[in-house]
Amino acid sequence: MNIKQQTLAYFNHFHTHPEVSWKETETTKKLAAIMTDLGVKHHTFSDVTGVIAEIGQGDEVVAVRADMDALWQEVDGILQANHSCGHDANMAMVLGALLYLKDEPLTKRVRFIFQPAEELGNGSLSMIARGAMDGVSHLYGVHLRPIEELPFGQVTPALHHGSGIFLRGKITGVDAHGARPHQGKNAIDVIAAIHQFMKSIYFSPFESYSAKLTHIQTGGDSLNIIPGSAHFSMDVRSQSNELMKELQQKIGDGLGAIASLHDVDITFEWTDYTPAAEVSETAMQIADAAIRKTLGDAATAAPVHTTGADDFHFYTIKKPELHAAMIGIGADLSPGLHHPDMDFNHDALDIGARVLANILKAT
């Protein structure tokens, strides 16, 4: 089996064995077994999932990161783990790069980081806390891109992800009989006010942002009770970390005003913050040159600005001197990331593996 075929075989295994954030137990075991079979030095952790492997010799360390977790979503009417974000492909491409480099003479150490819980926005922090960045000067990530961003065969040296965060809130009003609405404080009225308020949030159109309700839970099975309490959640995104702070302030002020207007209590917390990309010009230029060497100028795309978020960027937030960039792989991916039926051209896996190998060699 050649490297292209082996990379596809890795993908097929991970695709058919998805595991959600912090529960990537069998995925970790499989990755460790692969490293053992290849004779690659590696270690796992007693308290979290994930694998760190290393090849080569020398004082200098460059690294590449792949995320491991799947989403929990409904697929054909069944709730299940599903690799609709392409992390199965990311692992396969990084493993393919390892295969291309394993028998090469290396004057530096190349570290392979298989990270849990990207979908929760904090798995990278667990790897940082466990030494994944110790001694690392350059770090690269990789991710398949939807077809509207990059077609198959195109590769970008940098993804400029936006910032993302969740808000989880609770409304506490007063239940009432359906015939006596004046005796209650209707949480559904408050939800409607929050929804309308969020449609009135405006910042400069030259920088992308969004804020929307993504979860509402209120009431029971009795249709003659006006519910006084509700739980709600928001997904909030912006292209920069600075704008994210302004968004959070405006939303917090708005929720306070709505609570006062409706005479209810609204409590909330911000969770699972993911920072916007801080792309290193140095890392991007190295990646650009390696892509051109591997695929040619015509296949080398410009940096992509995307509203999606990725906890990869915590690595540079926590280690500002790190030279980091995430590589985007065009794969004709459709209907889109996180769609339960997401699919892509599997030939992109070998493209990604070869590009990553050449970037790591050139760094």
UniProtKB/TrEMBL annotation:
<dbReference type="InterPro" id="IPR017439">
    <property type="entry name" value="Amidohydrolase"/>
</dbReference>
<keyword id="KW-0464">Manganese</keyword>
<dbReference type="Pfam" id="PF01546">
    <property type="entry name" value="Peptidase_M20"/>
</dbReference>
<feature type="binding site">
    <location>
        <position position="87"/>
    </location>
    <ligand>
        <name>Mn(2+)</name>
    </ligand>
</feature>
<dbReference type="GO" id="GO:0046872">
    <property type="term" value="F:metal ion binding"/>
</dbReference>
<feature type="binding site">
    <location>
        <position position="338"/>
    </location>
    <ligand>
        <name>Mn(2+)</name>
    </ligand>
</feature>
<feature type="binding site">
    <location>
        <position position="143"/>
    </location>
    <ligand>
        <name>Mn(2+)</name>
    </ligand>
</feature>
<feature type="binding site">
    <location>
        <position position="85"/>
    </location>
    <ligand>
        <name>Mn(2+)</name>
    </ligand>
</feature>
<dbReference type="Pfam" id="PF07687">
    <property type="entry name" value="M20_dimer"/>
</dbReference>
<protein>
    <submittedName>
        <fullName>Amidohydrolase</fullName>
    </submittedName>
</protein>
<keyword id="KW-0479">Metal-binding</keyword>
<feature type="domain" description="Peptidase M20 dimerisation">
    <location>
        <begin position="170"/>
        <end position="252"/>
    </location>
</feature>
<dbReference type="InterPro" id="IPR011650">
    <property type="entry name" value="Peptidase_M20_dimer"/>
</dbReference>
<feature type="binding site">
    <location>
        <position position="119"/>
    </location>
    <ligand>
        <name>Mn(2+)</name>
    </ligand>
</feature>
<dbReference type="InterPro" id="IPR036264">
    <property type="entry name" value="Bact_exopeptidase_dim_dom"/>
</dbReference>
<dbReference type="InterPro" id="IPR002933">
    <property type="entry name" value="Peptidase_M20"/>
</dbReference>
<dbReference type="GO" id="GO:0016787">
    <property type="term" value="F:hydrolase activity"/>
</dbReference>
